[in-house]
Amino acid sequence: MSVVGAQPFIKPMQTSPSVSPGIQRRHTLPASEVRPLNTQDAISVFEIEREAFISVSGDCPLHLDEVRHFLTLCPELSMGWFEEGRLVAFIIGSLWDQDRLTSDALTLHKPCGSTVHIHVLAVHRTFRQQGKGPILMWRYLQYLRCLPNVRRAMLMCEDFLIPFYRKSGFKVLGRCAITVANLTFTEMWYPISGHAYMRRNSEAIRFPQHPLTLPLTKTDEQVDL
User: Fold this and answer.
1) How many angstroms separate the CA atoms of 147 and 137, rounded?
2) Is 77 a catalytic residue?
3) DSSP class of residue 173?
4) Catalytic one among 140, 143, 165, 190?
5) Nearest in space to 164 (alpha carbons), one of 102, 225, 110
6) What gap in Å lies between CA 160 and CA 32, rounded to an integer?
7) 16 in any annotated domain
8) Which CATH number goes with the domain that contains 53?
C-alpha cells in the first residue's frame, strides 16, 4: 500500500526555493562534465592549445582549421572536460590505418583504421597541476575500449613528455618519422583490449551528462598538465 493511500489527508510538502530564480538559472550547468567536442568548441580548443604549446614548442599540434576539420569528421574521437560550461581540458583524436605514424596522419582521418591517433591533449593554464590531464586521458582510453574496431591508441610527443604518458600506460614504440621544424618526436602506443567486457559494461564509461566524480591525483612533477 502506498503512503498516499494509507494517509489520504496528508498532502505532500510544497517546498519553496531558498534562492531566487535568477540565481537558480545561473547554476543549471553541471559543475563538471565530460562530453565529445563539436565545431562550436573549436575556438576554445585552439585558445587552450595555443597557450599550452606555443611557449614550449613554438607551434601547435593542430591549427584552428585542423581542429574544425577533425571535429567535423570524427567528433566521437574527441573528449572535452567542462567546468560550469567552460572548457578546461580536451583530447582530439582520429583513426589511422598503419603501424606507424606518417605525415599524412597529421591531417587525415581513416574511417576503416583500427588505431586512434591522439593528436593533442591540453589543459587550460588555470586548471593545471590538478590532475586533470591524467584523469582525462584515463577516461578517454576507457571510452576507446567501447569502440569495437579500435585496437590501439598512438601518439607522438617530445621526449620530456614520455614519463607523463608512461604513467598513463603508454609504451615507447620508437623515434617518429615526423619532424616539425627542428622538433623531433617519439612514438608511443597503448593497447586497447577487453572489448567484449567493456561493451557489456560501457554505460559507466560512455560520455556522461552527469558530473565527473573521479578523484583528482597529482600529475608528474615534470609535466604541467
Assistant:
1) 16
2) no
3) E
4) 165
5) 225
6) 30
7) no
8) 3.40.630.30
214, part of any domain: no
Known catalytic residue at 121:
yes
Say whether pTM exceeds 0.85.
no
| Residue 62 covered by a domain | yes
C-alpha grid cell, residue 88:
578546461
Percent of the chain exceeding pLDDT 90 equals 64
Cβ atoms 188, 173 nearer than 8 A: yes
131: which DSSP letter? Answer: S
Active site residue 147: no
Question: How far apart are the C-alpha atoms of 42 and 210, rounded to whole Å?
Answer: 23
3-state percent helix, strand, coil for the chain, nearest multiple of 5: 35, 20, 45
In a domain, 167, yes or no: no
Write the pLDDT tens digit of every residue in 78-123: 999 999 999 999 999 999 999 999 999 999 999 999 999 999 999 9
- Polymer length in residues for the chain: 225
Domain that holds residue 99: 32-154
Using DSSP's 3-state secondary structure scheme, residue 219 falls into coil
The answer to whether residue 165 is catalytic is yes
Number of domains into which the chain is organized: 1
Q: Kindly list the distances between the CA atom of residue 17 and the CA atoms of 12, 23, 39, in Å, as whole numbers in the listed order.
A: 15, 10, 37
